[in-house]
Amino acid sequence: MLDEIIADVEDRMKKSISALEKDFVAIRTGRANPAIFDGVKVDVYGSPMPLNQVATISCPEPRLVVINPWDKGNLGEIEKAILKSDLSLNPSSDGNLIRIQIPDLTEERRKEYVKLAKNKAEDCRVAIRNIRRDGNDTIKELEKEKEISEDDSKNYQARVQKITDKYIADVQKLVDNKEKEILNI
Predict the structure, then answer these.
(1) pLDDT digits (tens, 9 = 90+) for 71-88
(2) How far apart are CA 27 and CA 81, in angstroms?
(3) Contacts for 2-5 with beta carbons within 8 Å, 24 or more apart?
(4) String of b and e for 86-120 (b: at least 16 CB within 10 Å)?
(5) Model's pTM, two decimal places?
(6) 127-136 pLDDT, tens per residue?
(7) If DSSP codes are grouped into helix, strand and coil, which group holds residue 26?
């Protein structure tokens, strides 16, 4: 039962890290990356669909994104969706493809993105600490109900803390790498 609690804690912490990685992909770095369009929804066929499900997104050059719609009739809707998104990008269409030049980030914008990355990282740390608290509360409850000894309780709480420390360190590595990527260090 205690090993199940530990496994659950670790699994939930892994999911928090995965969510942070996904959030980081959406933060622009000044380099072309198809993943920045993951949050863009296009109104086609009567419902909003993710852009990557209606077009091929490629980056033939470091500062250029090319979007090739599978149905050329969706070109206008794709352009509208990109303009409406908070990506601050300006698509240009030639009737078949959409090309997007990725502008250099200003120093001010880079600092905003670093701040955003740090805020997302802090949210992830809070989530990890909440998971630790939930795991420890469950262990303490078992001890209170005399299902486990006080020594077992302390040992398993120490294991939960060790797992927490590992994932908090992972968050720090991710945010440090993202900061370097944004600032082009």
Answers:
(1) 888 888 889 888 888 777
(2) 18
(3) 2/139, 2/142, 2/148, 2/152, 2/156, 5/135, 5/138, 5/139, 5/156
(4) ebebebeeeeebbebebeebeeeebeebbebbeeb
(5) 0.73
(6) 999 999 999 9
(7) coil
